[in-house]
Automatic annotation (TrEMBL):
Domain Ferrous iron transporter FeoA-like: 1-78
Name used for this protein in its record: Fe2+ transport system protein A
Pfam families registered for this protein in UniProt: FeoA
Keywords: Iron
Superkingdom as given in the UniProt entry: Bacteria
Signal peptide per UniProt: none
Alphabetized GO MF terms: transition metal ion binding
Length: 79
């Protein structure tokens, strides 16, 4: 399962990230924010227009706006 498919309110752990599918600058920003395997994450909200972009994601104590394309590159396991 990917972070993009995680239901709002559910908690999960990042298992892997497909860094090759993310632009280098975006990947650098995500790494700086703490995206890495083993980190707990949850989806707080989804956008309301069109493709439901962006997602509001909680990572640690931060809430981050994340594009769906980036969330689709993050594999997670629920629980």
């Amino acid at each position: 399962m990917t972070l993009e498919g995680l239901a709002p309110g559910c908690c999960a752990t990042i298992t892997s990230i497909d860094w090759d599918s993310i632009a280098a600058d975006d990947g650098k920003r995500l790494r700086a924010l703490g995206f890495d395997a083993g980190v707990e994450v949850s989806v707080k909200h989804r956008g309301v227009f069109g493709g439901r972009d962006p997602l509001a994601v909680t990572l640690g104590r931060m809430t981050i706006a994340l594009r769906r394309v980036h969330a689709a590159a993050v594999s997670v396991s629920e629980g």
